[in-house]
Write a structure and sequence with these properties.
Strand content: 15-25%
Number of strands: 11
Order of helices and strands: HEEEEEEEHEEEHEHHHH
CATH class: Mainly Beta
Length: about 180
């Protein structure tokens, strides 16, 4: 156990904390710039590190939505595929914010100057997740909804409700329909 004491103009604890913050910040910023692999619609991997995009929630990989024709389609896979095509092997720059309960880094990420979270919401491929975003993407989401972009063309179950249904033992096809998604 380290004892903190005041030894001059700066305490030993403050000095050690400053060194650790500087070192960890440098490591994070260096580690999260590079070519990204798309894991799903809101998760990337850069240099072996899983990164969850902050403030948005995309449909799960096996989640289904209904298009304007009422037919089911793989909206989670579509979100991942379109994100991968948008990134197009360009360098991705991620600024870490925190770790989630699964140990993934939660970060805002951009390609060139385009915020990937905002891009996903604007295209109707993900939702603003107000529990975490404090509504940062709410305006863009309203515009996507009004334009009928992506999932807004038909019907869908919010990804967070879909996961609750799956954890309760539901099947992907059943949890993807609104009537069955609320256990």
């Amino acid at each position: 156990m380290m004892m903190c004491s005041r030894t001059g103009p700066i305490s030993r604890c403050a000095f050690v904390a400053a060194i650790l913050l500087t070192a960890s910040g440098a490591a994070w910023s260096d580690s999260f710039v590079g070519q990204a692999s798309v894991i799903d619609g809101d998760t990337l991997e850069i240099h072996g590190t899983r990164i969850r995009l902050w403030g948005v929630d995309a449909p799960e990989s096996n989640q289904l939505c209904r298009g304007e024709d009422s037919e089911q389609y793989r909206c989670g896979a579509q979100a991942a595929n379109e994100l991968d095509a948008f990134i197009a092997r360009r360098p991705v720059n991620c600024i870490p914010i925190s770790l989630d309960r699964y140990g993934r880094t939660v970060a805002t990420c951009a390609v060139d100057s385009a915020d990937l979270g905002e891009w996903l919401v604007k295209k109707g491929l993900a939702l603003d997740w107000p529990n975490y975003s404090n509504g940062k993407y709410a305006t863009v989401q309203r515009e996507a909804e009004q334009a009928g972009a992506g999932i807004w063309k038909g019907s869908y179950v919010e990804p967070w409700l879909y996961r609750v249904c799956i954890r309760a033992g539901g099947r992907p096809a059943d949890c993807s329909d609104d009537a069955n998604a609320h256990p």
